[in-house]
Amino acid sequence: MTAESTVASPAGPQVPGGAVSVLAPRGQAAGRRGGAGRGARRPRPAARSFRTTLWLVDAGAALLGALVLPAPHRYPLVVALLALGVLCLNRRASLYDTSAVTGVLDELPAVCARIAVGWAAVVALSPLRSVPLAVLAGAAGVHCAAAVAGRAAVHGLRRRALRQRPGPALVVGPLAATRRVSAALLRQPDCGVRPVGLVADDPEVLGEADDELGLPVLTTALEARRALVQNGVRTVLVVGAATRVEKAAVLRALAAHGCALWELDADPPSYGVSGHRTGAGHLAGFSGRLLRPRGARRHGSVGKRALDVLLSGALLVLVAPVLLTCALVLRVLDGPGVVFRQERIGKDGRPFTMLKLRTHRPASAHEAATRWSVADEQDMSRFCHFLRRTSLDELLQLWNVFRGDMSLVGPRPERPYFVAEFSQAHPGYPARHRMRTGITGLAQVHGLRGDTSIEDRCRYDNAYIDNWSLWQDICILLRTAAQFVRPTGS
Questions:
Q1: Are 397 and 439 in contact (CB under 8 A)?
Q2: CA 353 to chain centre
Q3: For 447, phi and psi rounded to 5 degrees?
Q4: Phi, psi at 410, each rounded to 5°
Q5: Which of 40, 69, 78, 338 has its CA 20 to 30 A from that of 23?
Q6: Residue 66, helix vs strand vs coil
Q7: DSSP string of 252-287?
Q8: Helix (H, G, I), strand (E, B) or coil at 342
Q9: What's the rounded Cα separation, in Å, for the pair 62 and 88?
């Protein structure tokens, strides 16, 4: 049995082995790669929603703590700085990482320590120095209690959701070891992971089903990628450190698709060898640690996100009259339906809805998803041609940037149909999804927009990601502003 017989294949990208840097252990830092996937069966609980809820819980806890202070000392700016400081400290400590299922007792020391640091810094730098120490201690205590209680509720909801809908996973390694790990996971569904395939190369079971577990044995990178897409896999369990070397090509391809990679120790520890590893955890009793591609944290830089939020927010305010005018003209000339919504593929292969001003009406949803371009269609009105020529129809994507679906600078997002096509034709294409997609990018400022070479775009996009810096983003934005009026949209 091969991967094709597990579930029917949904529409989605088929990811070949992409160019991804060598995997290196980075402890608990797993960023957002543990996000929920969209498969043909029941989807994994949305890790992103739990992450957002944790942010809201921590911000609300800071507000409750501030309410303990006497009314004259509840300075809004001080409270905002306290909440922002604690959120940043928590983020740096990976306390918003949802790749691993944790408990509130495990993270209680880290949460309370960062709240204490936040209060100490705010008191030292603000008028709160005049508040009695007992009152400050009480406010910090309420802050800690609210944060711990809120996080306990969120973690409890997530564990219950994972018990009801465990996330699908591929188990990679020697056949005997993958069988043992998979059997343990199937016996303990509370761990939140459900194996859907074994990636092993045993000549006796090539392409056959595992008789003991009923799971397909996947022996090629192509079968592994198909199983990943068909089952909505977002977790890969790597059994044994040697597997990282033996299956490096397969693991790079799976990492490029946005999977969280766990290295598990299936064998008991040897005497005389230290069993302690920084950032280690366990899954169903197997010691393990999360693996990441080098540089992935840098690509999710706080500075880049801050630039996106500040500039997109300011630009939305500035261009609001322009957008409103264009929308009114479109409504008068072409009737209702001013905003065009289309599914695109973003960071880590996650889909999102991209917004544009409508400049044409596709004959059907299938045509909108699979037809490359209608920029040369003769039935578009003169005003719609104007919107496309000046790229004014793209301005609504500033809202996508503000809410976090996109970035101002990054690889241009594409529709799922074309992501699948281009991923098969160009090996480096899936690696473009290591970073948030953008309104403009290095490829666009070099003239690669519209009907231009996908191979060239892919090369420029990956070069941009590999050499990313905040200054490079600023330079690309300045060059884009200089080229704002151009013959065709991107």
A1: yes
A2: 15
A3: 85, 5
A4: 165, 175
A5: 40
A6: helix
A7: HHHHHTTPEEEEE--SPPPTTS----TT-EEETTEE
A8: strand
A9: 13
For residue 236, the tally of other CB atoms under 10 A from its CB is 24
pLDDT in tens, 168-212: 889 998 888 888 888 888 887 777 788 988 888 764 554 445 556
The CA distance from 71 to 169, in Å, is: 52
Q: Where are the domains of the chain?
A: 3-9+17-29+166-294, 47-162, 299-482
In which element (H, E) is residue 343 found? strand 339-345
| CA 293 and chain centroid, separation | 14
**Coil/strand/helix, residue 462:** helix
Phi, psi (degrees; rounded to nearest 5) at 236: -125, 125
- DSSP β-ladder status, 23-25 and 286-293: antiparallel
Q: What is the pLDDT of residue 33?
A: 36
Higher model confidence: residue 451 or residue 376? 451
What are 109's two structure tokens? 């020391």
Beta strand 217-218 with 260-264 is unpaired
CA dist list (Å): 257 to 226, 264, 273, 462? 12, 20, 35, 15
Rounded CA gap, 375 and 94, in Å?
44
User: Tell me, what's the pLDDT at 337?
Assistant: 79
What is the longest distance spanned by two Cα atoms in the chain?
79
Rounded distance, CA 9 to CA 7, Å? 6
Q: Are 351 and 345 within 8 A, CB to CB?
A: yes
User: How deeply is 71 buried, as exposed, middle or buried, from its count of CB atoms within 10 A (0-12, 13-18, 19+)?
Assistant: exposed
CATH number of the 3-9+17-29+166-294 domain: 3.40.50.720
Strand extents, DSSP E, 181-303 = 193-199, 217-218, 235-239, 260-264, 281-283, 286-293
**Which residue has tokens 């996973």?**
169
What pLDDT, on a 0 to 100 scale, did the predictor assign at position 86? Answer: 92
